[in-house]
Amino acid sequence: MRSSQLISSTIRFTLCSTLLVTATLSNAATVSRLTPPSELFASGNPAPVIARFLPGQRFDLQATVQPDAGLTLESFEFYVDERPTAPSLQFPGGVVIPSTAARSKVVETGPLETCIGANGKTTGASGCKLVSGLAGNSAVLTQRAYSNTTAGVHTLKIVARQSNGTTISAVGNFEIVGVTRGGSVARNIIIMLGDGMGAAHRTAARIMAKGYVQGKAKGRLSMDSFPVTGMVMTASLNSIITDSAPGMANYVNGNKANNNEEGVFPDDTRDAFDNPRIEYLSEYLHMLQGKSLGIVTTADVFDATPAANAVHTSARGNGTGIADQYLDDRNLTGLTVLMGGGRKWFLPNPSNSTSPQALNGSQRRAANDYVLPDDLVQGWDVTPGTLDPERDLIGDFQSAGFAYAATNTELTERFANRVPDRLLGLFAYSNMNVAFDKIAGRRGDTTVVNAFGFPDQPMLDEMTDKALKVLAKNPNGFVLTVEAASIDKQSHLMDSDRWPLEVIEFDHAIAVAKAFAEEHADTIVLITADHECSGAAIIGASTASAADLQANPAAGQSVVGTYDAARFPRYTIANDGFPVTTLVDRKMLIGYGANADRYETWLPALFPTLDTQQPFPSSQSPASPSARNQGVGFFISGQVAGDQAVHTATDIPLSAYGRGDANFTGVFDNTDVFFKLGQLAVGGTTP
Amino acid sequence: MVSPNELGGIRRRAHGRFHSCLALALLCSAYAGAAELSLREVPSALSVRKELAPPPAAVVELRFQDLFKMPVGSRGLEPSDALVAADGKHVRVVGFMVHQDPSPHDGFLLTSVPVAASNEDEPLADDLPPAMIRVAFSTKKNTEVPYLPGLLKISGVLRLQAHVDESTQRISVIQLEPDSATRRALSRTVAATHAPRKTL
């Protein structure tokens, strides 16, 4: 070989080697996700332990493994404390066969040209299995429904074998929080969830409903009468600012989750219903003790907070599948009562939204329905689900023994002869109307409730009362979540006249729950929130009369009385427990620390007082009273984009009454609440 | 903080973020996305500021309260005879544009009461009345349709035809295809609010 050839060969060899090394490095085998999440896996630090579970609480193990370039994964095993976790089937004669039914390996099987990009990475395009950005030969490895009964911190290891025989592994950890037995147990658990309700929301409701004189409240809200109060940290798995999905789910499964996700850990598949599950409190206690589950909300029942008590999905917007799963998984959750709005998800849509579309208002679509993978069905023993927008879900609930009520009158009628065994109430097409408008309707101004087509909706305390009557029939007890949803929704809108009434309505429901607990000593009632919304603050009171505010809707700062000038706003409370009007002289004024741009008039944002369908003189036009964000009033520049205020990271107050209430004091994480409730329900109060 | 008058009643938004033109000396002239209009800026061809004369004989006046049997039945909405009869007809509807955040690109919603819908928290757990009409007005270049406050009159051909908004997954079953006059007014409004302009 001539020297020039030698040099050339050497260069080629070096170049090839460099390219190979580069390729190997860029496709080096790695475990990019290990579930349950842990800091041990993420950063190498064993603390804090992120994932915690009660003894026997089920959860899925999962790893996303990106093999070396050109290789595939042949097999895998999860180890806890160095012991393999694969479930096994025992047959007569002592034959033991590892069960693979509850395990799966998801790889990209979608169209290659669509799902794998030119860079060899997954694209995450529609029709593909995996999310974008993974090596094209990646695999998501899952073992379903694992549980562990030994208290303490455990190591979790994934070992995956590549097609060339080499292995890839990674280590994380999780904790089993022990339960101390021997105390008096809480048979019934009631979670009163004021969505978005921070300390200011509670104070505003007290000022409005009870009033103050010479520095003292003239009365107390029912929530004020709870003997124990703590402060709750609300961050989600991926942000200091949670949304309602993990905000609720964290309370009832003990684990942090990503925003938008309920009852699951995040994963790397596109399917929103196949994520690693975490067993809910309802499922855990239904399995252990046969408890029932009740869910009551003023929102659409598919909304994040109610769904995060019973439904497992990474996409809180998948209404069809969420509504279906309530019923399909009732044997897992013990669902016995479901009440709120959201009738649109229960109505058949035979055409799957293609024309001709049923005009019944159905929002059901195959695109947001669910079908579960086999390993999940086998592991959790759940219904696989079907893409069935044509499903008559109300009919199916009725066939399953649920009494159905569509109005408050019907709700009362369902209890006329006997307390039903199961109850479904769907009182609106989506969210129920807010207390401000429902009460107006009951007082004779039916404009808004009629415009929505639902003039006969129950108040939250009425729903709570009925739910408790049904649930109390189970001698094994129940878990009930009651959500005042529009505290949050009206805070987003910075509607300072509507959300205080939502808190007052919520307080009426709390009184019902407390009365139940007074009669049933083995009940624990919690009042809490998933997060604070809007950074609401009571900044003072108007120095102007109601008439002057109306005359000058752009008065702005000139009428804001702070400190001494705020004095003590006075509202007159009607027999229904709500203010006669929120537009009083020297009314309480609210500011927002998490606000979007808005025009503030300090006036109630009224809907039109006349039928809107025929135009009417401009003096009566809704253009004037419905001023919010419509260019009338005093412009306040916001810190956040968009039109609505946002959630905040502020700790929120939690109050407790009943069996074991003393456990809920101090400052604690929202996931801690789950373990306190688990202790009370399974082990009882600790000395 | 400044008053609406100081702002000229307009808040301009770029990529979903408001930019307020605060100082009198500032000229805000760069493109900034869809503007939000004040009541007085809504074109008279769309705005309702006084009692309307009856529509032309060939145009049917349709009220929201007449779309479905009210109250809503226990098994869902039931279309009224008037709604079924209006399918394919030229109608006039008076109502409020739903204040959507972010602004819609592909048609907008009309309801009987002024309500807001945010996609940020949960678009389909909403406070919208079920009696709702989608105005099938798509903009060129996929630009945002600005929010038009106040009572609006929209004329066009009504279609009982499902439409799925893929961004929100909302199904709307009543479509209103604006007639040429309404479409022109809407187009001019969109063009004006997206054109580079000076405020103050």
Describe the protein's architecture and organization.
The complex is a heterodimer of chains A (687) and B (200). Chain A has 19 helices and 30 strands. The termini of chain A are far apart. In chain A, strands 18-19-17-16-20-12-21-29-15-30 form a 10-stranded mixed sheet, sandwiched between helices. In chain A, strands 2-11-10-4-5 form a 5-stranded mixed sheet. In chain A, strands 1-3-9-8 form a 4-stranded antiparallel sheet. Chain A is α/β, with parallel strands linked by helices and 687 residues long. In chain A, helix 12 links the parallel strand 18 (402-405) and strand 19 (422-426). Chain B has 200 residues and is an alpha/beta fold. Chain B has 3 helices and 11 strands. Chain B has helices spanning 4-7, 81-86, 180-194; strands spanning 11-14, 17-19, 35-36, 60-62, 90-97, 99-101, 106-111, 116-118, 133-138, 151-165, 170-178. At the A-B interface, helix 14, helix 16 and strand 27 of A face strand 5, strand 10 and strand 11 of B.
